[in-house]
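Fig. S4 source data, part A: sequence.
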Amino acid sequence: MTERKRYISLYLPQWAIDCRNQQNKLPEQPYVQTTKSKNKVVIEIANDFAYQQGIQKGMSLATARAISSNLIVEDYDSEFLQKKIEQLADWAYQFTPFISCDGMDSLMLDATGCSHLFGGEKGMLQQLSTKLTSLKLHHRLAMADTVAGAWGLARYASKGFLVQDGSIKTIIKSLPIAALRLSDDLLVDLQRMGLRRIEDLLTLPRSNISCRYGLEPVLRLDKMLGDVADPITPRRYKTPHMVRLGFPDAIGLAEDIEAGLDRLIDQLCIRLEKDALGAKQLHLICEKVNKTQQVISVGLSEASHKPKYCKRLFLEKIKEIEPGFGIDAMRLLATVVEKVQHRQNTILMTGERQRFQKQERLREDLNILVDRLRNRLGYHAVGHIRARDTHLPDRIQAWQMNLEKNWPKNQKRPALLHNKPIPFHQGNVPTHLSYKGKIDQIIQWQGPERISPNWWQRDADWHHGDRDYYIACTKSGRRYWVYQHVQQTEKVWYLHGYFS
């Protein structure tokens, strides 16, 4: 007798929002991510604050901006979400060895024969839901006999998790017809004919449905009922690059731990170098005599397989290891790896070779400094300012987490800008300017430089249109960045920034 097949659909309705919040917490205001569709920008995903104001998926960005004036807009990054769902699939192997990625916001788990390890099917879903909640992920779960049944129940049956105990045919009757995963055009046609729920389809003769709408609705219905096979294709599990070192006698001295770490790093770096890979995240796991573990983790800003570079980052954290009654074994894992580009040796003269080696040393020293600071202070605490491809002074720079070679361009822009320009004079050309309560005489003007707002973007700070910027040089030696609006009849002068 074959075992009853059981599938779990893990649906993440706010996957893009949750991934964005993990990077940087969003403020409590409407937020959307957009894509381009048919020569216009449309909403792909929106948070609860946006939905409450009436913003929906598929709505144009122009309409959404008209509804909400404080709307936060970002691009929908499908590659980033696909990478994150792959990472979540790796995490989910603790529940079952057979997992399939179902789009960019869903996983399908083959839980056949696994539920007894978690105290039953409800216990399995309860533990899965608890762990997803701890990761701050909005989720909906359903377990059913068929893949299509689990998919439909997870999205349209309940908001928490649901286990199909009885007949699948009885449970899916009340689901909307969208749970069959039909194409959009076919779904509209069926709803136009008054077929709202699955039970409306079940009461009709199969021949009539297939003659009018083709085989798609009949085939989807048979897959949901289990009359047609609908297997999943499990993804290949990516074993992390790992090396292990066991000890005949437990160790506890710092010198022994460091010597063991040296051997592990050498072995792992040799493996990574053979595969042309470099580690970006390393975890040292110390297995103690009392069956507990202690994990030490480090991150690298640039993928590397150099033992000296990796060891230097671990040396600061070895002091955190508490061996207790002793350490039986040590494991070193590279959980995040990237391809490393091998550089071909070039024939250089002595002076050129020295300059090239000096640049390489400076680059490595900078990477080591950044990595040490990030391992101490946190990844998001260290970064640099990069130049944006725009002429607007408010948007000329942005905070960049990953180090890049293109540092900010050298432009004639002040070192300090006010978040909101300060009006300081009304009328003709001013002769004096106040700075920190002291009045400073203007002796020279440079400019004007006319800057126009982007016509394709609506910015509340630039609603007055073009600006003429001037550099005001004062008697005390200070230089100020001031402007006036071109279109305004009343000439109001604004102070926007200060030069160093």
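Fig. S4 source data, part B ends here. The first strand starts at residue 7 and ends at 11.
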